[in-house]
Amino acid sequence: RAVLIVTLHHPKTSLGFIDRFLVTTDSFRIPSTIVFNKSDLLSKKDLGAIEYISSIYEPLGVNTLLISALKKEGIEEFKELIQDQITLISGHSGTGKSTITNLLVPDLDQKIGEVSESVKKGVHTTTFAQMFEVNPTTKIIDTPGIKELGLIGIEDNELSDYFPEMRALLGACKYNNCMHTHEPNCAVLAAIDNEEIAESRYLSYLSMLENEDRRW
Ligand SMILES: Nc1nc2c(ncn2[C@@H]2O[C@H](COP(=O)(O)OP(=O)(O)OP(=O)(O)O)[C@@H](O)[C@H]2O)c(=O)[nH]1
Ligand SMILES: [Zn+2]
């Protein structure tokens, strides 16, 4: 499983970044979970935003979890999620990956970086991926904070295969080489009109198509 640690603030994680991550994990058929960390910092409005984001991703088979590593809230659910598996933990620098790893692997004192006030993107304290044993059947791989996530080796014409809601419409467009951008009788464009596909997801798709190197 791949877990993406997401924070709304300090640092802010964009939907585009989430979508890039999910395209990558989907292309490797790795089940993914979005974990919202730093719940202790969230306002009512923020909680509404998280509910909205969850409502986009849950129907796509990406489950979501709200935790506070600082207040140790939601950690039991997190442990259940990763039990008896190898889990890749990813996310922007400063989202709390090291703090979470420390909670899961008690006899470990990983260096926890301060999120720098000026940059708000955090300083890189984890510089290479490390595997830790939570218990004999449960391991986590803590990856360095990622600022840019490249989608290596995905061709334009296969990109929509890694968006589950577009994949579900495979063969439904008039043209079988449809890129879902302007073509007549495009099932994806129709689904966006019907609000069956979230606009933010489609915008991420377009942005990934536009950016040759597929970086944010
Ligand atoms: N308020 C709050 N702060 C948190 C929480 N979890 C982590 N932090 C703080 O966020 C900062 C960054 O945490 P780290 O665990 O170093 O983040 P990281 O994702 O490992 O960062 P890199 O190692 O740079 O990739 C630290 O100051 C933590 O104390 C949380 O749940 N709430
Ligand atoms: Zn189409």
UniProtKB/TrEMBL annotation:
Residues 1-147 form the EngC GTPase domain. Residues 1-149 form the CP-type G domain. The keyword GTP-binding applies. This is Ribosome small subunit biogenesis RbfA-release protein RsgA. InterPro entries: G_CP_dom (IPR030378), P-loop_NTPase (IPR027417), Ribosome_biogen_GTPase_RsgA (IPR004881), RsgA_GTPase_dom (IPR010914). Keywords: GTP-binding, Nucleotide-binding. GO terms for molecular function: GTP binding; GTPase activity. PROSITE patterns: ENGC_GTPASE, G_CP. It comes from hydrothermal vent metagenome. The keyword Disulfide bond does not apply.
